[in-house]
Amino acid sequence: MLQPIAVGQKSLAGYTHLAGRPLIAEIKELAEGLEGLRVLHVSATAFGGGVSEILYTLIPLMNDVGIEAEWQVMLGREEFYNVTKRLHNALQGNPDELSADEWKVFDRYNAMNATEITGGWDVIIVHDPQPAGVRRHVPEKGARWIWRCHIDLSSPNESAVEHMVPLIGEYDNTVFHLQDYVPAALGAGRDGVRIVPPAIDPLSPKNMALSPEDASFVCDQFGIDVDRPLMCQVSRFDPWKDPMGVIDAYRVVKRDLPEVQLALVGSMALDDPEGWEFFNTTMAYADGDPDVHILNNFNNVGAIEVNAFQSQADVVIQKSTREGFGLTVSEALWKARPFIGGDVGGIPLQVEDGETGFLVSSPEDCADRSLRILREPDLGKQLGRSGKEHVRRNFLTPRLLRDWLRIFQER
Ligand code: UDP
Question: Quick check: CB of 198 below 6 Å from ligand 1?
Fold first, then answer.
């Protein structure tokens, strides 16, 4: 069997004060007709990155409203993860194509995992490209199959898309964050396509309210001088997240504001062989600057620490050059922090330039907006407040749960 993941319990009632009564009532009404629906989520990893972040909240809440939801993680080895990382990169636009042998590895692991999936599900939701090939081997195991895409498919490598479209076209539904991501070959007007952006859990340890004192207490333990300004980016060590562009921006800021510090906080995923190499490259790029703090989960940086860094930072950055959605964006805005993000993928959905943060396309612009925020604390406060309200209305988990229940209702 695939590895089942224990997700614990959450109660929808606890979200009422944040999401509002009408949304909670709507969810309950939708859930009434779905009592006992058996829903399986399949993903490639239970740790690191946005997918696992979402499932740890969404699945307990689905269970709380009466659905029987489970999560199973596919089994893979390094050869598979090497291929799926390259596939991920190609789908986000890297010109490198996968070789015939690499596609064989992809197919072999998908076939093997398909036979391991248990049967009898009303709905099987397959997350992201890694397990997208399981359906065709065992369509009988789910009455309805949904492929959920979490990545930025706005300008993909066409050969990778050509290979994926026949696989995902067999699903009853495909769900994307943005209309822009729907591959033309799938047919934009296609019946089964749904557009649903993800959401963050305001009550998780990563996003729950942390006092400024607690945030600085935690950051202090990682060597941050909490009396000096801090720029911060939280993200996997991945070229698309552009940590080196963030270092470039920090260096420009430092010329004018020598006391500024930078924290790059990045978890390392087990299915990400490129991650360590890129981590080392980023370390080398920082060139021993004592005011650049590069931390990862192997330094004991977990959810609370991420919360502390996001809460403490004077500017939170997500300078991605591709970004499916960017949960880190909503995480920062939810903490009412002044935010600067790359003008790509799902980031503009969360940030209106000049209103709820700034959108930038170069390290120079990023430095310029950082300096503005650091010099005008009132501007930062105003951006942060509007950003938080935008997230409260659009990007908290109850809204995502509602959208899934609507899709389940369509049976
Ligand atoms: N994250 C974390 N620790 C880190 C780096 C990232 O917990 O050191 C979390 C981050 O807070 C967010 C998720 O991983 O919840 C990343 O999701 P996002 O959508 O931003 O990007 P993805 O990794 O899926 O491309």
Answer: no
